[in-house]
Structures are given as C-alpha cells and as structure tokens.
UniProtKB/TrEMBL annotation:
Gene that encodes it: LOC113509544
Protein's recorded name: Adenylate kinase isoenzyme 1
Source species of the chain: Galleria mellonella (Greater wax moth)
GO molecular function, one term: kinase activity
InterPro entries the record matches: Adenylat/UMP-CMP_kin, Adenylat_kinase_CS, P-loop_NTPase
Similarity-based family: Belongs to the adenylate kinase family.
Keywords: Kinase, Nucleotide-binding, Transferase
SUPFAM superfamilies with a match to the protein in the record: P-loop containing nucleoside triphosphate hydrolases
Length: 195
C-alpha cells in the first residue's frame, strides 16, 4: 500500500535544466495551490545540519566529492513526504529524479508520480541565463565551460527519465515570460487539485 493517496494529494515532479526558471515557478505553485515543495538539495543540507548519524555519513560522501547514494536521498524524500502527508495538498518534487533508476525507485518506495512538468528551454537560453546569474551571484560554477558541461549532463540523463513516462509528461516552453509559463502550469495542475 502506497503511503500517499495521490488521487487526493498529487505528486508532481518538476524538472528543467539549470536556469529554466523551475525555482520561480515552484514558488508560484506553492502560493496558489499550497503544495509542499521538496528539493533534494535542501533536504540533504538540512540533514547534514541536523548532526544525526546519517549526517556524518553524508558529510563524508560530499567531502569526497561523490554523489549521495540514491537510497539515502529516497529515504529523506519519503520521510519528508510522510511527515507532511496529513496537512499537505500535494507535493512538488524539485529536480528529482535525475536519472532513470531514481524514478523507478521513487515509485516503488513512495507512490506513483501523478504528473511530470518539464520546463524546456534551449541550451543557448539556459547558458545565457546562467551567465547572467553568474554576473550577479558570483557563483564559481557559472562560467561558460562549466555551464555547457552541466547542461549536457542534465540533458543526457533527463532525456532517459522523460522517455520512461510519456503518458505523464507535460512539456512547458520555458522561453516564455514567467506569467505565460505559470498560465501553462495552471492548466496542468487545476484539474488535479481536489477542492
């Protein structure tokens, strides 16, 4: 038995390359629909701060520059979803799954995904946005070479994830303005929300 009844509380995977405007759209979705926003990065950072046994293990993995094992990420997601299952109207899972096996594991451990929203933009647009962000943020990973590599890695893995869910996938053109994009998001989410 899945721990979440997705007919009442949709689970939405929000995917899009770095610079696709995912974060902005997630904020608008939370404001309108009252969904719980879970970002694997935030969950990992919070866990590391908690000082738990698992935090020590995570810190060691990250210090070695390795990727955190999927089981740990899934456990954190599952715990966060179950902790908020009673009061949440739905869940936005941001930037996960990053690869095909993660999607399969998520559905086995937690619940089937209701819909996948993919914010699609050309590599040129994403590169331009990230370079613009780099000028204002001073993030070391926002130089052109690194950006191109990040985009390629993201797109290669993402294509495999998307190919697995043709019937649940909704693509949104992320080249549009924030409001036009959110209009498209609402067309996808409105029918899923139980009033």
């Amino acid at each position: 038995m899945a721990p979440i009844d997705t007919s009442k509380k949709p689970i939405v995977w929000v995917l899009g390359g770095p610079g696709s405007g995912k974060g902005t759209q997630c904020e608008k979705i939370i404001a309108k629909y009252g969904f719980t926003h879970l970002s694997t990065g935030d969950l990992l950072r919070a866990e590391v701060k908690s000082g738990s046994e698992r935090a020590k293990c995570l810190t060691a993995i990250m210090e070695r520059g390795e990727l955190v094992p999927n089981e740990i990420v899934l456990d954190l997601l599952k715990e966060a979803i179950l902790a908020r299952a009673d009061q949440s109207k739905g869940f936005l899972i941001d930037g996960y799954p990053r690869e095909k096996s993660q999607g399969i594991a998520f559905e086995q451990a937690i619940a089937p995904v209701t819909v996948i929203i993919y914010f699609e933009a050309s590599s040129e647009t994403l590169t331009k946005r990230l370079l613009g962000r780099a000028e204002s943020s001073g993030r070391a990973d926002d130089n052109e070479e690194t950006i191109k590599l990040r985009l390629k890695t993201f797109l290669d893995n993402n294509d495999l994830v998307l190919a697995q869910y043709p019937e649940k996938l909704r693509r949104i053109n992320a080249e549009e303005s924030v409001d036009v994009i959110f209009g498209e998001v609402q067309k996808i989410l409105d029918p899923l929300v139980v009033n």
